[in-house]
Amino acid sequence: MDGRIFGLDIQLGFDVIFQAIAVFIMFGLLSYLLFEPVRKLLENRKNKIAGELDQAAADQKAAAKLKAEYEEKLKNIEKEADAILAASRKKALKRQEEIVADAKEEAARILANADHEIELQKAKVKDQMKQEIIQTAVMMAGKIISDKITAQEQNTLVDETLQEMGDKTWLQE
Q1: How many C-beta neighbours within 10 Å does residue 35 have?
Q2: Residue 83, CB-side half-sphere exposure with 13 Å CA sphere
Q3: Tell me: the pLDDT tens digits for 8-26?
Q4: Would residue 3 count as lying in a domain?
Q5: Distance (Å, whole) CA 170 – CA 141
Q6: In a designed cystine with 153, which of 89, 111, 144, 149 is the match (CB 3.0 to 4.6 A)?
Q7: pLDDT at position 46, please?
Q8: Kind and range of the H or E run holding 167
Q9: Is 1 inside a domain boundary?
């Protein structure tokens, strides 16, 4: 050894150059065999992710469209529900008015029947009073006549009265 830490000789130079060429060849060969498939794999993955992002964006747009449609349908349903409630209220008010009108008609009919019944009762009471007045007058007249006239005169008076009345009754007004 000549005092150097490592010796640079021609053999070492050839070995280094040979090793460098081998490394570059190995790098080129591995690049062709490994880097190209990895690059294709990464490119495919990149394209797949881009496609999935595009699909996700399209799905999001479709979901937004569906959401808008459902919100519109919900508004329409709410409008229909309000319309149904309004129609029900209107129908209920109409029915209420019909019931009130029927009740008023029934009350008027009851009042008319009551007025008619009152008139009938008044007429009946008047007839009863006439009958009682007539009976009282007949009794009084009978008493007065029996005191003043004889049975012969009484029969003559009854016959004359019956002839004057003819077909009419003395109870008619």
Answers
A1: 13
A2: 6
A3: 788 888 999 999 999 999 9
A4: no
A5: 16
A6: 149
A7: 95
A8: none
A9: no
Asked if 111 contacts 119 with a C-beta cutoff of 8 angstroms, the reply is no
Which pLDDT band holds residue 2 (cuts at 50, 70, 90)? low
Structural domain boundaries, residue 115: 10-163
Query: First and final CA of the chain: distance in angstroms?
Result: 177
Number of domains in the chain: 1
At 79-103, the pLDDT tens digits run: 899 999 999 999 999 999 999 999 9
Q: Among all chains, which residue has been given the structure tokens 């008609």? A: 105
Token pair in block for residue 88? 């029900």
DSSP per-residue string spanning 125-159: HHHHHHHHHHHHHHHHHHHHHHHHS-HHHHHHHHH
Domain assignment present for residue 4? The answer is no
165/8 Cα distance (integer angstroms) = 182
| Mean pLDDT estimate for the chain | 84
d(CA 64, CA 74): 15
Half-sphere exposure of 130 (CA within 13 A, CB side): 10
Task: With respect to residue 41, please indicate whether it lies within any of the assigned structural domains.
Answer: yes
Please say whether the beta carbons of 145 and 157 come within 8 A: yes
The alpha carbon of 9 is separated from its chain's Cα centroid by a whole number of angstroms, namely 106
Kindly report whether the global pTM for this prediction surpasses the value 0.85.
no
